[in-house]
Design brief:
Order of helices and strands: HHHHHHEE
Number of strands: 2
Number of helices: 6
Structural class: mainly alpha
Distance between the termini: 69 Å
Strand order of the largest sheet: 1-2
Shape: elongated
């Protein structure tokens, strides 16, 4: 998968996740007197939630099989811990959910080459006509080997003599 596209998708997913929770917090904190504002925040929060879910499902489709299984187990464990934590301390499960989302996104960004199927992303890009340029790749510079050079003092001059083996040899001649 394209590293730049992965970074953008995870970034937009995290932003929409945060905006969803902010709108949910505003919706819960508003009293019933602000009926229009309360409904507007609920509608806006729902729109951000749909955007977040669509990004998560798209990225889930691109994962390889082992990563999908691991991610399913990860989410089940997160939900179990979230329910247990919410029973103990009200509304604290949302913080655990946000932390686990941040941890999952950072893992996706760091392991982009290992967890995604690259041909699937390219297929969807061709299907929808999307072109995303990846980050510039650094060229690997090969180390230049130094050639062995012979330093000749200024007093002497080098004379080339051909031998029967067709190899050149150098002899020092003194002046």
């Amino acid at each position: 998968m394209n590293k730049r596209a992965n970074l953008y998708l995870n970034g937009f997913g995290m932003i929409s996740f945060i905006l969803t929770f902010l709108n949910m917090w505003v919706f819960l904190s508003l009293s019933s007197q602000f009926f229009i504002l309360k409904n507007l925040t609920a509608l806006l929060g729902f729109a951000f939630l749909l955007f977040f879910v669509s990004i998560e499902l798209f990225l889930f489709m691109l994962l390889n099989r082992k990563t999908k299984i691991f991610l399913g187990i990860y989410w089940i464990m997160t939900i179990v811990f979230m329910v247990f934590l919410t029973i103990r301390v009200p509304y604290s499960g949302f913080l655990l959910l946000a932390f686990s989302k941040l941890l999952k996104d950072s893992g996706r960004i760091l392991l982009v080459d290992k967890i995604y199927i690259p041909k699937e992303f390219n297929r969807y890009c061709k299907m929808f006509g999307i072109t995303i340029k990846d980050f510039k790749k650094k060229r690997k510079t090969s180390t230049v080997t130094k050639k062995n050079t012979i330093k000749i003092p200024k007093e002497s001059t080098a004379v080339a003599i051909k031998s029967n083996k067709k190899a050149k040899s150098m002899k020092k001649a003194t002046i």
